[in-house]
Amino acid sequence: MTVEKGKQVTDFTLPANNGESVSLSDYKGKNVVLYFYPKDMTPGCTTEACDFRDQHEKFEDLDAVILGVSPDPVESHEKFINKYDLPFLLLADEDHQVAEQFGVWKLKKNFGKEYYGIERSTFIIDKEGNLAEEYRKVKVQGHVEAALEYIRENLK
Fold first, then answer.
1. Across-strand partners of 117?
2. Catalytic residue flag (residue 50)
3. Structural domain of residue 26, as residue ranges?
4. Which of 111, 121, 95 has its CA nearest to residue 13?
5. What's the domain count of the chain?
6. pTM value?
7. Which CATH number fits the domain that encloses residue 38?
8. Which of 23, 25, 99, 138 could serve as a FRET partner for 11 with CA atoms 20 to 30 Å apart?
């Protein structure tokens, strides 16, 4: 794992649903909510994305940008955004390099099968690019509100 609370987060660049390549450093001077999720259009991921959508303006009011990351390709992200009217960028980490950088690419078990995938996690990065807070093994219910509250209380 290469991310550590209080330390600078290594820059990365990924393709986004808007057709551009997006780097973490593009958001220097803003708080960044970087959330990793397993798969577009699945129930838990849809709930989480819609929770972020519904609180989007409150995050913006706190000078925070939301970026979602999954191994799905950009085309899948575009459909997800269009279907649920998501107002933030989704980044395609198809080779899971950034997920590995953040230590969220994990061996998972489901119905007796083992496979690698994203462990739902959120990282709050401050305006200087340092990791301020991390939420691992996220349970969707109440999570977005907790992230919002953290920024409101700790990052001005």
1. 106
2. no
3. 13-154
4. 95
5. 1
6. 0.95
7. 3.40.30.10
8. 138
Residue 1 predicted with pLDDT over 70: no
- Alpha-carbon distance of 113 to 31, in angstroms, equals 38
Annotated catalytic residue, options 3, 34, 45, 147: 45
Q: Is residue 111 part of a domain?
A: yes
pLDDT > 70 fraction of the chain, expressed in percent and rounded: 99
- Is 1 within a domain? no
Per DSSP (E only), the strands in 57-148 are 64-70, 89-92, 105-110, 113-118, 121-125, 131-135
pLDDT for res 111: 86
Q: How many CB atoms lie within 10 A of CB 82?
A: 10
5 lies in some domain: no
Q: What whole-number distance in Å separates Cα of residue 41 and Cα of residue 49?
A: 10
Strand partners, 112: none
- State how far the Cα of 114 lies from the Cα of 131, in Å rounded to an integer: 30
Cβ atoms of 56 and 87 closer than 8 Å? yes
Measure the CA–CA gap between 47 and 140, rounded to whole angstroms. 7
107: which 2 tokens? Answer: 């061996």
User: How many angstroms from the chain centroid is the CA of residue 129?
Assistant: 15
Cα distance between residue 56 and residue 65, in whole Å: 8
